Amino acid sequence: MIKVNNTRRAINIILVCNAILFSYVETFVPLPFPVPGLKLGLANIITIIAIVFLNYKDVVFIVVFRCMAMAFLAKGIIALVLSLSAGFLSATVMWFLYTKAYGIFSIRGISIAGAIVHNVVQVIIASIILGENILFCYLPILLIASVITGFFIGFIGELAVKQIQKKGLLYKCQNS
Amino acid sequence: MKKIVFPLLITVLILVTACTKNNSKPLQVDSFAMGTIISLKIYGENSQKTANEVIEKIKYLEKLFTINAPGGDINKLNENAGKGYVKLNPETIATIKEALKKSVISNGAFDITVGSIVKLWEIGTEKARIPSENEINKLLGLVNYRNVHIDEKNNCASLEKTGQIIDLGGYAKGYAGEAAKEICKKNGISSACLNLGGNVIAIGNRPDKNPWNIGIQNPRAKTGNYIGIVKVSDKAVATSGDYQRCFEKNGKIFHHIMDPKTGKPAKSDLMSVTIVASSAADTDGLSTGTFVLGFDKGRNFIKQYGKAEAIFITTNKKIYVTEGLKKSFIFKDESEEFEYIEKG
Amino acid sequence: MKVKNSNILKKGDVILIFSILILAGIIFIWKAYFVEKFDVGEKIAVIMHDGKNIERVNLNNLNNPVFIKIKDYNIVIIAEKGRIRFLQSDCPDKICLKSGYLTKCGDKAVCVPSRTQVVISGKDDDEIDSLSF
Question: Which terminal residue of chain B, N or C, has fewer Cβ atoms less than 10 Å from its own Cβ?
């Protein structure tokens, strides 16, 4: 039992580190869309892996920790608020879809849904900060960008998950 | 299947809130009442309904208060001057009561019983003329707000002397403005800008949350040209000026704001005075009274009154603004004829 | 739950993508045709910072470029004849810079960290809302 718990913790930490790494790397990837807070969402690959193999608490832990670490690196309170709320909600929605609706959605679809939630929440909060209703202006391009990035990340996520399953890396976690 | 709806529902819900908050197109309605143009700019869901109700109310009050057309309460009161109490609409009683208060605090500079003098000069009509001293003196005795008596409990009022005439001209628009504000409030309107022939009622802020920008007419230029802008929220702005209604004779210009004490157009050192206050009813009467008082007395009067601010434009083209309004006033005179005196 | 080896999109995916794209399309068309945009007449750029209007620039009469500076993030906005844009900003996202030139009424660019917004407003927005006379 203890062995499994330790393993779990170790996995969590590894995933968190990877998530932070991915988040950092993607800051070097500029997207052509001028939407506030729009990112590639590489860290969601990790989130997807966590959702498939771990439980909800772990997923939340990874997402929250990653956001806080990134905010610390980027030194922005605004960034923290935006990414934390968006990340948390999007991870929750993805978890929900995966556990309850996997038959209807593939991981790609779930990732798209997660991307939409994430980006929409960010723009809403940006609206509140600005004091102006900018959501309406950005919605069309935001939705399309989310579909594209979500699909891309979901695709990679799916590949990653398949590989991990094939190699039985997280076998112990899956069964606990 | 029902789980697919989840993300869709979220987006739709967000969309709906985004859409309903996008109420940034105003309803702009213009109408004609009380002898002048009524221009309403209303934002919100019930804007059309509110605009209709406001115009209806103004037309109703016009019929009630007019002395230039038959019917209504004021005509009834005037016809029965010297003949005791007449029963009137409670709104009329309330209006007269408020107007009398203004007379008291302005020491008679504003006096609604100045009607007989106004009718004598007939300024604003084609029959405008300069009456003789005799004619004026005969009627001066009839100008006295203290001769107006109100019995609130029974909704009656009386004018003591025969021949006395109440003219709510310098007051009705203010009262109508107040009534319009109430209608907006009742319909949940939180952003509107109503203009009743130059009397502005600013409700809330503009939709972009900034205060309303109200221009102050340049007293010596065509209508539409202003010498400054005052930024207000939830305030009424009214101006009395010597340019509003006047006629020229023998090279002299006679304006329409009568001095109740002399029976002639007030010899004021002001071209115009603008009053800014929370109550629309206040602004109209105060602006007339302050104009009659002139710059020095007018300034003291406003200071004493305490519940209003003012912008004075003197006959030597200088602009003075009361302390409380200085921060909200922007001097902007394209004609470059006026000087804004900030200290003093 | 084992992840099945499949490359086809599931039912839910297709519906999701489809409806999102249609939604985006509808909003886009709505914005383009129903949100009134006056392209003729006065083009006035309104710059807002910290929730307040700090500057109004009439873009029609501008013969020489005007630079508007904001302390936060060393933001510089350049206003030229008929167009305006964020020229420089030290903010972390640079979304404002990426928005490029604003040329039509209704065009907007925002910088969230500095709470700055530049929008071109149409004829409606004269300097005064009403006149007291």
Answer: C
A102 lies within 8 A of chain C by CB: yes
CB-CB under 8 Å, B11 with A93: no
Among the four given CATH numbers 3.30.1050.10, 2.60.320.10, 3.20.20.10, 1.10.8.420, the one describing domain C44-121: 2.60.320.10
Q: Which residue has the tokens 């083209």?
A: B317
Amino acid at B153: K
Q: Does A94 contact chain C (CB < 8 Å)?
A: no
CATH architecture of structural domain B68-159: Orthogonal Bundle (1.10)
What residues of chain B have any CB closer than 8 angstroms to a CB in chain A? 1, 3-4, 6-7, 10-11, 14-15, 18-19, 21-22, 209
**CA–CA dist C52, A78 (Å, integer):** 20
Residues of A in contact with C31 (CB under 8 A): 136-137, 140
Close Cβ partners of A171 (under 8 Å, ≥ 6 residues apart): none
Q: How many domains does chain A have?
A: 1
pTM for this prediction: 0.56
> Residue C93 is inside which H or E element, if any?
none
3-state helix, strand, coil in chain A (%, to 5): 80, 0, 20
| C-beta atoms of C132 and B237 within 8 A | yes
Under an 8 A CB cutoff, do C13 and A112 touch? yes
Distance, in Å, from the CA atom of B171 to the CA atom of A126, rounded to the nearest integer, reads 48
pLDDT in tens for each of the 133 residues of chain C? 555 555 677 777 888 888 998 988 888 887 776 655 544 556 778 888 876 677 777 787 777 888 888 888 889 999 888 889 999 998 877 888 888 888 877 788 888 888 888 888 754 446 788 889 8
Q: Is the CB of C129 less than 8 angstroms away from the CB of B214? A: yes
**ipTM here:** 0.85
pLDDT tens per residue, chain A (176 residues)?
455 677 888 888 999 999 999 988 888 887 777 776 678 889 899 999 999 888 898 899 999 999 888 888 776 677 778 888 899 999 999 999 898 888 888 888 899 999 999 988 888 887 777 766 667 777 888 888 889 999 999 999 989 988 888 887 776 555 44
Q: CB-based burial of residue A145 (10 Å sphere; 0-12 exposed, 13-18 middle, 19+ buried)?
A: buried
For tokens 């992840």, what's the residue?
Answer: C3
Q: Which of B10, B15, B21 sits opposite A133 (nearest CB)?
A: B21
* Beta-carbon separation of A78 and C17 below 8 A: no
**Collapsed DSSP state (helix, strand, coil) of residue B219:** coil
Partners of C76 in beta bridges = C69, C88
Contacts with B239 from chain C: Cβ below 8 Å: 132-133
pLDDT of res. B6 = 58
Provide the residue range defining the domain that includes A120. Answer: 2-174
CB contact under 8 A, A116 and B7: yes
Domain boundaries, chain B: 68-159
Contact residues on chain A for C12, CB-CB shorter than 8 A: 101, 104-106, 109
Does C133 contact B25 at a Cβ distance shorter than 8 Å? no
Q: What is the pLDDT of residues A13-48, one digit of tens each?
A: 999 999 999 988 888 887 777 776 678 889 899 999
Do B18 and A139 lie within an 8 Å CB cutoff?
Answer: yes
Q: Which of A107, A132, A140 sits opposite C117 (nearest CB)?
A: A132
Q: What is the pLDDT of residues B65-116, one digit of tens each?
A: 999 889 999 999 999 999 999 999 999 999 999 999 999 989 999 999 999 9
**Side chain identity, residue B332:** K
